[in-house]
Amino acid sequence: MKAGLLNTVVEIxxxxxxxxxxxxxxxxxxxxxxxxxxxxHKGGRLELSSQEAFASRIIEFExxxxxxxxxxxxxxxxxxxxxxxxxxxxxxTRRLIITTQRVNE
Length: 105
Description:
The protein is mainly β. The protein is built from no helices and six strands.
């Protein structure tokens, strides 16, 4: 993996459960760490659901091979949050390819 290709900083988020003062629990996403990545836009579509339009985007993030990331994590890039759909470890080129989809929250 050529380090010069990793020109974008992304935030890797993890879910944190906090208890409310009424005894319930709330989930929130907090920044676990920041990483440098190469961003590849793969496509997207405009969908209509319940008379509401929303646009989905599919993006691939390429990171260094040694990054710890798993499916429950999310990635924040350019003000949007993306859920992880697929993780591919490419040992030959020593890179981690993560396919994501934007989350509408």
